[in-house]
TrEMBL record:
Signal peptide: none annotated. Pfam families: HTH_17. This is Excisionase family DNA-binding protein. One of its GO terms (molecular function) is DNA binding. Keywords: DNA-binding. Residues 2-50 form the Helix-turn-helix domain. InterPro entries: HTH_17, SinI_DNA-bd. The lineage of its organism: Bacteria, Bacillati, Bacillota, Bacilli, Bacillales.
């Protein structure tokens, strides 16, 4: 499925000008039909999968209990 720059910006929650800049820098693949750029939506799937994995790993890390340090001395 192909998206316009506006639709891609909404899909990625980014400003349209930033998406256009990414296309000019060739960081996003796009084809031109003469009037506008069309961006294949499938190229973002891997990015979103990696983002979800990172969120899961961060959540696991946050929920890991802090081990007790047996070397702590009470200095009261």
């Amino acid at each position: 499925m192909y998206l316009t720059i506006k639709e891609t910006a909404e899909y990625l929650a980014l400003p349209e000008s930033y998406v256009a800049a990414l296309i000019r820098e060739k960081r996003i693949r796009a084809v031109s039909d003469g009037e506008q750029y069309l961006i294949n939506k499938e190229q973002f799937n891997q990015h979103f999968e990696q983002l979800e994995k990172a969120k899961q790993l961060l959540e696991i890390w946050r929920n890991e209990p802090i081990p007790e340090d047996y070397d702590v001395k009470d200095e009261d």
